[in-house]
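[job 0412] stage=fold_complex status=start
inputs:
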Amino acid sequence: MRNEELQNKARQLRQTIFKVICEGQGGHIAGCMSVVEILTVLYHRILRVDPTKPEDPDRDRFILSKGHASVAWYAILAQKGFIDEEELATYGQGGTRLGGHPDKLKLPGVEASTGALGHGLAFGMGMAVAGKMDGKDYHTYVLVGDGECQEGSVWEAAMFAPQHKLDNLTVIIDYNKLQALDRLDKIVGLEPLVEKWESFGWEVHEVNGHDVAELAETLSEIPYVVNKPSLIVAHTIKGKGISFMENVPIWHYRLPNDEEMKVACEQLQIEFK
Amino acid sequence: MRNAFVEALYDIAGKDQRVVTLVGDNGAIVFDRYRESYPERFINCGIAEANMIGVAAGMAACGKIPFTYTIANFLTQRAFEQIRNDICLQKMNVKLVGIGVGFVYSDLGPTHHGTEDIALMRALPGMTIISPADPVEAQKATWTAAELEGPVYLRLATSRTPRIYDDDYEFEFGRGVVLREGGDVTIISTGNILHEVIKAAEQLKREGISIRLVNIHTIKPLDEEIILESAQKTRAVLTVEEHTIAGGLGSAVAEVILEGQNEAIQFQRMGLPGAFAQGYGSYDEMKEMNGLGWQDICSQAKRLYEKKLQLV
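[job 0412] stage=fold_complex status=done
writing structure:
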């Protein structure tokens, strides 16, 4: 898929996320918006996955460790064909398979039931270790939040992966610099983030997390170094695409009112209803 | 008990290539033979229990059968959220092996005691709990754990556990074992402390009180039938565990009796009464210091028996 097409897909993903969250009466909207391009490039260019064979033992694995961005995951899984687009409308309704956090036991393509922050990396690492043990070719990608990196378990994993030379593992950090209540640097800052991971033994690249060309290029270079795990610091904007949400902490989990919905729909080029 | 587990694990690993062993920087020497034979299926994850459990869960998601081994306390408590969310919630086939349950690490102090693990693991949906009383039981429990589909917590003492069973003992998963038939008082127990209970039962017999002695090696799923049967037969039930009385075996038994029985039962839990195990010393000294010696068990059983007689 060419970069222009990827951009189209990203635009559509943003629209879908917005619609689903509004119709579903709420979601972690801003944190979904910051990972749109990352998910788009992964699923439409990079991941060797087949929606008709979700259990294929040789498939690439992707784990959304920041599980609260579940709606973004559902939307991309629908785009890719793991679930039907129609099912997205059930989000927020009783009996839905699409919970506030993703459910591995219910949904094809969901590799781990995340939501408890700090768990996805170790889980993904286990998959990478199994892959090495079995001499398999698959790659495991784990998308973590920046606030999530405040969890100690992330750093336990950060020490483990280089030790075990997991060059079949890539972490992508959604570095949108905000968490639930405030900016990270007002709470527990991560800087110098790149140097931290490098000092732990990871090979780190930084990109603009909303530029599909940059993302595509860096992801295609993985693994960056043989015998080292790879890490992408993706500089993103929480709430990207909706001006009044961008970089505003309150949009971590919030439902837009009618006025706000109207403005957002204009900006995202959706018909307002 | 621990050596019996390791030997069983060695045989199991030989038969099933999916078995992998993860340790939290313990098991020096004990795993040497295993590591020599299956070096690619052994990972020392270091002093990082939460990470070890997460990695085990991810490996199980790819079809492996991970055995994670470390001190019971650190395993079940440090990594409790991982056990809950990575293993139980997602039904990952991981076998958790906790050593040093109770206060068998008798001179190391409470930071190394496994005295709340039953209470914690019991609360988790989908978790199986097996608590062997001797090396024979431990060996058979290990095979059972490997064969079961789904999360299992196997709680072990250490080495130097005396034997109760013969080699031909038939371990039945989920079924309690009546070690002594008796009609006056039932004592239900699990794990290492069973040795003290047996001594107590023999003393009580000499004093004319016949004890029905039940070993519950499978704490979850619990053999409700044998508990209710014992309660009905004796009308006096004492539980003994090297564990807090809050939420452990005693609580589990009480739940069954109260929900399943209509008639009055004299009931008492023995264990750690809401305090960490006190002191340092030999294992026998620790039992005495913490009210879990066979004489203490005798007193409690007699007290229960007298209460029962008063009611009649």
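[job 0412] summary: Chain B has a mean pLDDT of 96.
[job 0412] exit 0
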